[in-house]
Amino acid sequence: MTIFTRILTGLLLLVSVAANAADDQAAQQLRKLLDAMNSLQGDFVQTTYDKTGVEQESSSGSFMLMRPGKFYWKTLDPMPQLLVSNNKTIWLYDPDLETVNIREFTEDLRETPALLLSADIEQLRKNFSIAKDAKDTSAEKYTLTPKVTEGMFQQLVLVFKAGQLTEFAIQDSLGQLTRCQLSNVQRNKPLPEENFFFVPPEGVEILHD
Questions:
Q1: Which fold has domain 17-200?
Q2: pLDDT tens digits, one per residue of 72-113
Q3: Residue ranges of the domains in the chain?
Q4: Residue 6 confidence (pLDDT) above 50
Q5: Cβ-count burial 40-76 (b if 16+ within 10 Å, e if not)
Q6: CB of 26 within 8 A of CB of 174?
Q7: Do residues 179 and 172 touch, judged by C-beta distance below 8 A?
């Protein structure tokens, strides 16, 4: 899984009063959906496309998420990898390379899409313009656009069906699109705290950022 670590920098974009009103309404609707989602677990298929829409790579695995900032993302195919966050530390374990990359959970790491999903709605609204697609009647689709002039990605799209998060997609600054489809999703099931803490296996190389 790709981890976005570049810090969002630059000035906030100026928006009109009308745009702010629409943004607030969409943010409130998104708040209701996210507030009902304290934890989430299931399977994922993640596919990346270049700016012309040609598929570049695909991966699959399982995930667990608990707000705020607790996250477990296990890629099984094509290459095993594990990303774990307990809202204080992030571990990235690569069993093939026998390495564990450990870094502090800080604001600049909130660019990782799944960590955005586990963030507080007020934090999302502070950093993003939020719009709802009124034309799509089959699902509730929200587009989050960073309120900065520079950044690692241009848009994050969250898709809900019957109140359940089923997909998110992220478009980076180069036009590359990463789409993550969720399945077998269970919401608000108890998740043990130890799932969000990683103990490196004996003998692996430990790297610190």
A1: outer membrane lipoprotein receptor (LolB), chain A (2.50.20)
A2: 999 998 999 998 988 888 899 999 999 999 988 765 544 454
A3: 17-200
A4: no
A5: bbbebebbbbeeeeeeeeebebebbbbbebbbbbbbe
A6: no
A7: no
Contact (CB, 8 A) for 204 and 98: yes
Chain center to CA of 80: 19
206 has a pLDDT exceeding 90: yes
Segments of the chain assigned E as strands? 39-49, 55-66, 70-77, 81-86, 89-94, 99-104, 128-132, 140-146, 153-161, 164-172, 177-187, 205-208
Tokens in use for 19?
Answer: 């745009």
Residue 29 DSSP label: H
Closest alpha carbon to 129 in 10, 5, 25, 1: 25
Residue type, 75: T
